[in-house]
Amino acid sequence: MNKLFQFKSFNIGYFSALLSSILFGTMPIFGKSLTSTNPLTISLLIAIITMTMTLPITFSKKLPIISRKNLLLILILACLGTVLAPNIYLLGLHDSSLSDAAILSNSEIVFTIIFAIVIFKEKLKRSNYVPLILISTGVLIISTKLDFTNLLVSFNIGNILIIMSMLLWSFDNNISKIIAQKLNAIHIVQIKTIFGSIIILMIVFISKSDINIHTNMVHAIILGIVSFGLPMILLYNAIRNIGTIMSILILSTSPIFSILYSTIFLGENIYGYQLISIIAMISGIIILYKYEK
Prior knowledge:
The chain has one domain (13-292). The chain is built from 13 helices and no strands. The chain has helices spanning 2-24, 27-31, 39-58, 68-94, 98-105, 107-118, 129-144, 157-180, 185-207, 217-242, 244-251, 254-266, 272-292. The model has no long low-confidence stretch (mean pLDDT 83).
């Protein structure tokens, strides 16, 4: 009975992470039309849209009693993952090249695994080694386009800000595991985005920033729901069932789906290095499932 429960828990976590990756891969498609918008505006829109999306789902469910400790943890998640990390990342993009940003964004995987092992005492199983190598190789190939001179990034202020944002997101990933054991993923996202919206509005009010919305609202709504809200709920569900390390490994395969969406919807070509990376990452998640199920 215990083995059956573990099998179901693994399947729920594995496929939640995979579906989160599939949805998160839409971000470059819907985010293209919003690149000229103020980062605070984008963050606020995404937080409000995600929060609104969760209301019908939780309307019929009674909100559980949340301890002060758990509320504090969700507040930390809101500060890290909803407010600080995305805004620091978007600011960093102004002074960083796209190739540098792509390479440095992969540091989130490394930081997440290091923090999970060193600080949060999560164990990296031997069965995870091969998938980790394959998925990391695939991500590296996509980032460098097999031109490894691109690995020599220049550490200007933009690149430093991107690394800072990855550090914040990696802490967010690990803290999520603690709170995911206590609360339903939907309630976590709902409370997190409520806190995030309030914090961003306070920042806007204090800094007197302009949040006039001159953007494609349809794309903003789709981005908030499909690329952020639903993937976030699914990721927390995955972290609850299979842990932070395995969840982030599966989520890091989202470039596969971004490439496929770009080909289907934007008519972009698939290049040889992309096929190599796709094969490496798909092999990684298949081996991960085969050894862990």
